[in-house]
């Protein structure tokens, strides 16, 4: 029978909220390329980036947020996720995106990637959308 293992996760926090990467060793063979959980305080922005060769899935819940992305034709698209709603956005490779907390409550994100980006994470390039 196997042993239960516990890993205390490193929490990265600033005025926007916090981020933690739950898929760290001892879980190296997890099916995800990478996953992280984040909080966004009112007015906070996360994202403003693109993943050139990886699709990202962003599960949004909590307060009121606005998810923005630049479509392939260059148009900025926005979707509001209100309190009590739980939405997952599938963001294809090469699509710049961001999430903003536009409400008064905390917004939460679970973002994950499938596969591997040639062994280097995060496979992210900065892009200012907002």
Structural description of this entry:
The protein is mainly β and 130 residues long. It has a single domain, classed as Jelly Rolls, CATH 2.60.120.10. The chain contains no helices and eleven strands. The strands form two sheets. It has a six-stranded antiparallel β-sheet with strand order 1-2-3-10-5-8, with no helix packed on it. It has a five-stranded antiparallel β-sheet with strand order 7-6-9-4-11, with no helix packed on it. It is globular.
Q: Sheet bearing the most strands, described?
A: 6 strands, antiparallel
How many individual helices? 0
The low-confidence parts are none
Distance between the termini: 51 Å
CATH-assigned homologous superfamily: Jelly Rolls
**Strand residue content:** over 45%
- CA radius of gyration: 15 Å
Summarize the structure.
The protein has 130 residues and is mainly β. The chain has no helices and eleven strands.
């Amino acid at each position: 029978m196997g042993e239960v293992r516990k890993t205390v996760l490193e929490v990265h926090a600033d005025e926007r909220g916090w981020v933690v990467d739950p898929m760290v060793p001892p879980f190296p063979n997890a099916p995800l390329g990478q996953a992280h959980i984040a909080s966004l305080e009112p007015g906070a922005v996360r994202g403003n980036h693109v993943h050139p060769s990886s699709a990202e899935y962003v599960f949004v819940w909590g307060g009121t947020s606005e998810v923005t992305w630049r479509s392939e034709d260059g148009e900025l698209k926005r979707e509001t996720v209100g309190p009590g709603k739980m939405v997952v956005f599938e963001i294809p490779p090469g699509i710049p995106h961001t999430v903003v907390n536009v409400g008064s409550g905390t917004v939460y994100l679970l973002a994950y990637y499938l596969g591997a980006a040639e062994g280097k994470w995060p496979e992210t390039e900065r892009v200012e959308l907002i």
